[in-house]
Amino acid sequence: MRKLYEGKAKIVYETEDPNKVILFFKDTASAFDGVKKAEIKGKGELNNTISSILFEVLEKRGVKTHYIRKLSEREMLVWRAERFPVEVVVRNVATGSIVKRLGIKEGTKFKRPLLEFFMKDDKLHDPMVCEEHITLLGLAPEDAIPLMKETALKVNEVLREVFSKGGIILVDFKLEFGRLPDGSVAVVDEITPDTMRLWDEKTGEKLDKDRFRFDLGDLLEGYKRVLDSLRGS
Ligand code: TMP
Ligand code: ASP
Questions:
Q1: Fewer Cβ within 10 Å of end Cβ, the chain: N or C?
Q2: Smallest Cα–Cα separation from 148: which of 63, 36, 214, 48?
């Protein structure tokens, strides 16, 4: 299979069908735009499984995604997409970059979900952008913006409910969008503890990639707890 693209956490391979590609989940953990990196054996498999479950849940709830099916422990078959270089972040609780950027107290609960856009560009450290930037710099089609916002908020509702059943708080997450071969705009990339913040409801323990970012504990242990909480979803 020909490699189309290799990112920090995944490799994209082409298939015989020009409209479909394979996502291969690597064991690499990366943080702070690749400044901190490590190989964590088993991470790829956990992320592929978690992302597959979440895409299936979302599809069942009417959210359009690029997901077709899980192919193997580390591989997922997806529709080929023209990805928009935009990251859509939804926050329920303040932590991470917003705490530093705006001086908000860590742990502050927002009275409704807060949605932000970032431009996907490691060299520029993914700067925050507004809707006008997205439109006028041509980062995504103008008519896709309301859809991205509406979809991200719907995903938040669905995932909050799913995780809350397993005793986990969905603090924040990042989504990417793209255009599929049928012309529709859909959620692409992955939805994993690399791209979400998940806190244990009772203890506040962080179960996501912040464990790796800030050396809080074994990454796999957190990701396994996330996966266990999803069994039956
Ligand atoms: P932030 O607080 O660092 O802006 O992160 C917000 C959310 O986005 C958090 O759940 C982690 C996720 N995220 C990514 O998926 N990729 C990234 O490159 C960054 C910086 C954050
Ligand atoms: N995903 C980014 C990186 O790999 C940043 C992060 O998640 O902290 O460097």
A1: N
A2: 63
- Position 86 pLDDT exceeds 90: yes
Taking CA atoms only, the protein residue closest to ligand 2 atom 6 is: 31
Averaged pLDDT for residues 121-146: 96
The span from the CA of 233 to the CA of 162, in Å, is 7
Atom of ligand 2 nearest to the CA of 35: 9
Interval 144-171: pLDDT, tens: 999 999 999 999 999 999 999 999 999 9
Residue whose Cα lies nearest atom 1 of ligand 2: it is: 31
Output the CA 202–ligand 2 centroid distance in Å: 27
Range 36-43 average pLDDT = 98
Compute and round to an integer the Cα radius of gyration of the chain.
17
In whole angstroms, what is the distance from residue 233 CA to residue 216 CA?
28
Prediction pTM value: 0.97
- Give ligand 2 pocket residues (Cβ under 6 A): 8, 30-34, 213
Q: Which of 11, 6, 5, 98 is nearest to 47 (CA)?
A: 11
